[in-house]
Amino acid sequence: MNHMELGPSTILGVGLIIIGLFLYALKLREPYVSRDYDFFFSCIGLLCGGILFFQGWRLDPILLLSQILLSGTTIFFIAESLYLRKNLNFVKSKKKYINLAKKNIYKYIYENFKLKKKWNELNYTRHIFYKKKKH
Question: What is one cellular component GO term in this UniProt entry?
């Protein structure tokens, strides 16, 4: 016999189940963004979501608050990680263009940077001499 109620724990459990399914489907839909360990986190999300869905009515209010905060933080970091992975793949595809742009910037800086003195005349270090005291 299962006892369920529609409350914040049930909604949180459904949310975690949806996020777990999303991570699992991500490997099939966009394999260049997905990593191998996403399957592990997908299983954890499904398990925790199922527990909250079926047993969430037993939670104390403070424990429910901690579950809400922890799940919200986890979902935020999942979204941020996927966003950064997608941008990393975009940058890797544009790497050749970025390297050319860097070379042009450095070339411009060095061509327009002129010193009044010659390189041999520049002294950046100052030597400090000391003598040991004789006892």
Answer: chloroplast
Q: What is the overall mean pLDDT for the chain?
A: 76
For residue 51, report the phi and psi dihedrals to the nearest 5 degrees: -65, -45
Average pLDDT over residues 1-7: 73
Neighbours of 4 (CB within 10 A): 13
Q: How far apart are CA 106 and CA 67, in angstroms?
A: 51
pTM strictly above 0.85? no
Number of neighbouring beta carbons within 10 Å of residue 62: 8
96: Cα separation from own chain's centroid: 24
- For 126, 127, 135, the CA distances from 130, given in Å and listed in that order, are 13, 10, 16
**91-126 as b/e, with b when 16 or more CB fall inside 10 Å?**
eeeeeeeeeeeeeeeeeeeeeeeeeeeeeeeeeeee
Question: CA–CA separation, 40 vs 20, rounded Å?
Answer: 10
Q: What is the pLDDT of residue 6?
A: 83
